[in-house]
Amino acid sequence: MSTEIAPPPSGYVQPVVDVPALTGLLDGEYAAVRDLVRTNLTTYASVLDDAEELGLDEYRERVRTLVVEMAATGQTGMGFPEEYGGGGSVGASIAAFETLAFGDLSVLVKVGVQFGLFGGAILQLGTRRHHDAYLPDLITGKLMGCFAMTETGHGSNVQALGTVATYDADSREFVLTTGDDQARKDYIGNAARHAELAVVFAQLEVGGTSHGVHAFVVPVRIDGEVAPGVRIEDDGRKMGLNGVDNGRIWFDGVRVPREALLDKFADVTPEGVYESAIENPDRRFFTMLGTLVQGRVSVGGGAINAAKVALAIATKYAERRRQFKADSDAQEQVLLDYGLHQRRLLPLLARTYALHFAQDVVRTQLHEVFSGIKDDEQSRRELESRAAGTKALGTWHATRVIQECREACGGAGYLAVNRFAALKADSDIFTTFEGDNHVLLQLVAKGLLTGYASEFGDMDQLDMVRFVTGLAVETVIEKTSAHKLLERVRDLLPGGDEWDQEAGLLDSEYHLAMLRFREEHMLAGAARRLKRGMDGKASPGAVFSQVQDHVIAVADAHVERLVLEAFVDKVRALPDGDNKVALGLLCDLFALTTIESDRAWFMEHGRLSAQRSKAISREVNDLCRKVRPLAADLVDAWGIPPEMLRAPDLVG
Amino acid sequence: MSTEIAPPPSGYVQPVVDVPALTGLLDGEYAAVRDLVRTNLTTYASVLDDAEELGLDEYRERVRTLVVEMAATGQTGMGFPEEYGGGGSVGASIAAFETLAFGDLSVLVKVGVQFGLFGGAILQLGTRRHHDAYLPDLITGKLMGCFAMTETGHGSNVQALGTVATYDADSREFVLTTGDDQARKDYIGNAARHAELAVVFAQLEVGGTSHGVHAFVVPVRIDGEVAPGVRIEDDGRKMGLNGVDNGRIWFDGVRVPREALLDKFADVTPEGVYESAIENPDRRFFTMLGTLVQGRVSVGGGAINAAKVALAIATKYAERRRQFKADSDAQEQVLLDYGLHQRRLLPLLARTYALHFAQDVVRTQLHEVFSGIKDDEQSRRELESRAAGTKALGTWHATRVIQECREACGGAGYLAVNRFAALKADSDIFTTFEGDNHVLLQLVAKGLLTGYASEFGDMDQLDMVRFVTGLAVETVIEKTSAHKLLERVRDLLPGGDEWDQEAGLLDSEYHLAMLRFREEHMLAGAARRLKRGMDGKASPGAVFSQVQDHVIAVADAHVERLVLEAFVDKVRALPDGDNKVALGLLCDLFALTTIESDRAWFMEHGRLSAQRSKAISREVNDLCRKVRPLAADLVDAWGIPPEMLRAPDLVG
Predict the structure, then answer these.
(1) A98 in catalytic set
(2) Whose C-alpha in A307, A345, B232, B346 is 20 to 30 A from the C-alpha of A339?
(3) Same structural domain for residues A139 and A152?
(4) How far is CA B102 from each of CA A268, B54, B141, B642, rounded to the nearest angstrom?
(5) What's the complex ipTM?
(6) A8 assigned to some structural domain
(7) What's the total number of domains in chain B?
(8) Same domain, A119 and A187
């Protein structure tokens, strides 16, 4: 707020963005896949009108039809093995999903439910017999299914699900039973209307012993009728995503054959002997869950692209909408020439670019792990952590961007014909489905605090507290991955302990050092507080509760550091030229607004003087002024099909 | 984030909230009015289901019918003179409106359009002939009308409206004409279906001279048919508020008699001579606008109460929903016992209370000004400023609270049956209608920067820049109202220049001093930057653009100071007892979270050491733990009819 009026930048030459080249850079290796999806989006653009105009039933049917038709183009099956009609590339499948998020989000989520959740569970948790039986028809959309994990009583803590599957050795069947209403499956996409099969997660009981949660393939509809013993209720209208038929499912002694158990990680012999290569039941459960990480990578990437749609509309609107005269001349000033409007939109634009490149990294990691290119235990853990963190930051970002952009478009932004209504309502659930964002950040923090110890995957929050308090603080710090690169906290600052007070504000090394320092310092502090709490004889639960906001902050700091590293790496690797200059401005803007928004923390911890803090705010304003003339090109480079902007009152 | 685990508070006795007494305090002098509305809300509770289930047309008709039925109970006409069938109390009318915001927000906005905007314009801008002609039927809802100010091209800058009303002295009529499509009236509530009359704002031209924007009563429907020369288009579905029929209106040479001009502030003689007691056309326009301030007071109060509904649901849910075990015992922990969950909800609870008491102040000021109790020029200006500021902070608060509460209720919060969908979609427009929040804060800042100079009402942003740069910075500071109470900046700190480093963190004087210091310092800084920019020969527009975020921050700091003062005054006036203790905790929590969220600024400006900043965060956590056991009672005290919570999956 103490920003002074900067002199016009001297010696600065405004870059000219090469839009097609930048689109190529953003699309990357999956450009062809993305273009296929862009074509499909344009072909089926009328679904955006249908979403507004059709009744619930018709809209659901329309979305189903459209998903099946898209499936026929190969767009939705890219992640499945080629032998079953898939595309054989996990990375391509994520890229396709991300691009689909430019369009109607019910279509996106229906695709996610059918091919990601349902198909993914069959593929990852099942074995050949399941693949042979289901994948061919599932990939074409002929066989619709649902993913029945969440229950009314348990969404985040799925290890505590209430549905039970008891093995009956006499009949060689599993008997599935919903206990009370808290154990009914709830919010299940595809359940209310379209699913024939459900992958049901239930507590497996064999011979009176519980073996934890396992997945079973259960027919829920036969020839369109609800199967005997199954009860289904429609979840009805939702805030958004009304093209997806969510519902509740109860099981009343439903019997399925022994082969219905998805048996990649555990099986029950015909005689009723439980067998698994993974002995520890917690680890077994988290290993199963870990194979489903693709869902989180998908949602994070989808959210980032939904944010792009909102930003593209708001930026184009701000380039043409005039309001109030700026000077005495006749014409009113366009919104984007106002300093405040730049402050509202351009840092969000920069962060969207940053998250795009961070998503590239996590998509690549996913592809490498699931294609067996880099499939060790450590890589899987890092992938799970990064997927959780990128999903949390990406989806919160989308919520924030869509809200800010709607407000920046005033009353016109409120009309249903101008996409914001649908964007806002449909994307709202992203922050809490596929893992509640706060719970996901706790997962990230757990990995950091335990240094991805081999046991880490199996720990709940209390185990984590006990584990951390069993270590010396130094050990915790040593175990962090960042630390392995950087010998001591002081070494985070490449020019020595005072260097950060003098470094150039536009030096990426400075930005990285600041975010690394913050992460390490917060991590050590959280570990110290956990230990101190336990030393004080408090219960692990009470200790965790009191340190919880600190733990979440550690995770947030960690993920922001990863995002910045992804952006910096990308810019550095570019050949010299105007696009590099433009992305460099955005990268600086992202880094400095990130530091600025947490500048209180940096001041509290001696890494930022009051003067320097004010200088950062001035620099941010200056960067906004430099990015402003590039803004239209920067949103055009996302390659959003014009039909998807669907905002006749805003972008013409 | 450096918060250490606090020892259990010693000597602290947890208060027991007397819920009925607290409800009485909150309802205040308008308890009977509020209870009438509560009864009506309960009687018509089924409209919440209708909103979800009915089609667009039926829902609009349902809302119309309901509004007319509510009008018959006297609820909606309280602000009109008794001689016309009204209640004769502006304050009561606002209290009724606020309470109505617990229910369906389409009903609320329909009431606002009919009785606040349309009725308010007839009452405030018209004279006896208009009152006699329209008020009796308007108050019963028999005569429906609309308020046609906003145009597609102009929402914020309404002085630049494009519709023209030309006086034809021969026929003694005004001829209304929409120029191009940018001048069509847009987003006008009641226009698409129900309005018979419109109060139309248009540029008045008499004998070739333009006299600025004036208001005219224009029939837009006759016997249910659109009037000749009028064209109306439906705005169609909106993000929310679909029970209100918004539309667009074009006028093609529509003739209305001379008496159609609402002539309280200006008239045209039959011969075509323009007459007004207010010579300056800008001042005339802003005087007219000023009489409509009630709309902003209403929306602000409504938004605060909509936020209460969301908080009540989320708090009740967090009291019963269990997730993850906190300790090794059998039961999972309720959400509200998690430190993070407390941090998410309880500061919002405290801010809601703070805004409630701030709303009490602005409602009282409105009542006094419009009842002639305190109707001087200065009081009117302060009212306009306070109404603008409270509306901006109240509506942003509602958007934030509803989003946070939805996320805190997970998937169930996404189902339409559980109120969040409607709350979120319906309230979204609050931040930009009845004045865009950023534009409103600029209005507040303009008042501060010009010390409510007599010319201030007439200035646009450029005049303001020129005015401020014509003054010495000291003069600007001298002119601020806060300064009149407190001789010099240093005197803001009651214990001397260093006192704030040692003052008790729970001392209200400390909280007030911090917020006062921030406001004065920011104000002086903004004035200095404006002057420096103009001295540097930049154009006023460029200077304003560069200082705009600072100007907005000044306004925000000013309004937060007013909100805190309202809360502190309220607590201090209470008799000793548990309710005073409980409200004192909330007041401290509001004050410290307000300081905490801007602690970077306080550190940058030498008013907060790093150590003290961390201590404030610790204190906030401690206050959250103290408020936690009171949370259920504190939301119950709002007296929201249980039917309005309508969240069967969340609150049972």
Answers:
(1) no
(2) A307
(3) no
(4) 55, 20, 22, 10
(5) 0.93
(6) no
(7) 3
(8) no
Is A609 found in the same domain as A476? yes
Q: Which two tokens stand for residue B27?
A: 């309802």
Task: State the residue for tokens 């008491």.
Answer: B357
Is there a single domain that holds both residue A275 and residue A412? no
The CATH number for A185's domain is 2.40.110.10
Domain of residue A140: give its range: 19-144
Mutation for B interface: A321, A338, A403, A604, most B CBs within 10 A: A604
Residue carrying structure tokens 């709202």: A428
Q: Report yes or no on B365 lying in a domain.
A: yes
The CATH number linked to A568 is: 1.20.140.10
Which pair of structure tokens corresponds to residue A203? 């507590």
- The nearest CA of chain A is from the CA of B163 a distance in Å of 16
Q: Which string of DSSP letters, residue by residue, matches B448-473?
A: HHTTT-TTGGG--HHHHHHHHHTS-H
β-strand pairing of A145-148 with A185-188: unpaired
Q: What is the Cα B285 distance to its own chain's centre? A: 21
Q: How confident is the model at residue A75 (pLDDT cuts 50, 70, 90)?
A: very high
SS3 string of A596-651?
Answer: HHCHHHHHHCCCCCHHHHHHHHHHHHHHHHHHHHHHHHHHHCCCCCHHHHCCHHHH
Q: What is the pTM of this model?
A: 0.94
What is the nearest CA distance from B190 to chain A, expressed in angstroms? 15
Which residue among B144, B162, B178 closes a domain?
A: B144
Nearest CA in chain B to A189: B411
Same-domain check for residues B585 and B500: yes
B436 at interface of A, judged by CB pairs closer than 8 A = yes
Cα–Cα distance between B16 and B337 in angstroms, integer? Answer: 19
Q: Which of residues 232-291 of B touch A (CB under 8 A)?
A: 235-240
State percent of chain B over pLDDT 70. Answer: 94
Tokens, residue A310: 């909102």
Please tell me the distance in Å from B580's CA to the nearest CA on chain A.
Answer: 27
Q: For residues B174 and B256, what is the distance between their CA atoms, to the nearest angstrom?
A: 5
Q: Which of A5, A406, A410 sits opposite B533 (nearest CB)?
A: A5
Average pLDDT, chain B: 92
- Does residue B4 fall inside a structural domain? no
The alpha carbon of residue B622 is apart from the nearest alpha carbon of chain A, in Å, by: 10
Task: Choose the final residue of a domain: A281, A305, A328.
Answer: A281
Please judge whether A544 and B333 are an interchain contact, meaning their C-beta atoms are less than 8 angstroms apart: no
Cα B640 from Cα B313, distance rounded (Å): 10
**CATH number of the domain residue B140 falls in:** 1.10.540.10
With beta carbons under 8 A apart, name residues in chain B contacting A6: 546
**Gap between the Cα atoms of A187 and B412, Å rounded:** 8
A438 and A587 share one domain: yes
Q: Which of A299, A329, A340 to mutate to test the interface with B (most CBs of B within 10 A)?
A: A340
Q: What is the pLDDT of residues B221-278, one digit of tens each?
A: 999 999 999 999 999 999 999 999 999 999 999 999 999 999 999 999 999 999 999 9
pLDDT digits (tens, 9 = 90+) for A122-171: 999 999 999 999 999 999 999 999 999 999 999 888 899 999 999 999 99
Looking at the complex, report in whole angstroms how far the Cα of residue B358 sits from the nearest Cα belonging to chain A: 24
Query: What is the rounded CA–CA span in Å between residue A395 and residue B375?
Result: 50
Q: Residues, chain A, total? A: 652
Is B10 within a domain? no
Write out chain B residues lying below 8 Å of A600, CB-based: 599-600, 603, 613
Which residue in the block uniquely carries the two structure tokens 């099981």?
A: A251
Q: Are residues A161 and A277 in the same domain?
A: yes
Residue contact B425–A425, C-beta within 8 A:
yes
Q: Are residues A40 and A134 in the same domain?
A: yes
A449 falls in which pLDDT band (50, 70, 90)? confident
Provide, as residue numbers in chain B, all residues whose Cβ is less than 8 Å from the Cβ of A239.
Answer: 406, 414-416, 420-421, 424-425
Q: In this complex, do B525 and A2 lie within 8 Å of one another by their Cβ atoms? A: yes
Residues 190-219 of B with CB under 8 A from A: none
Of B151, B196, B259, B434, the active-site residue reads B434
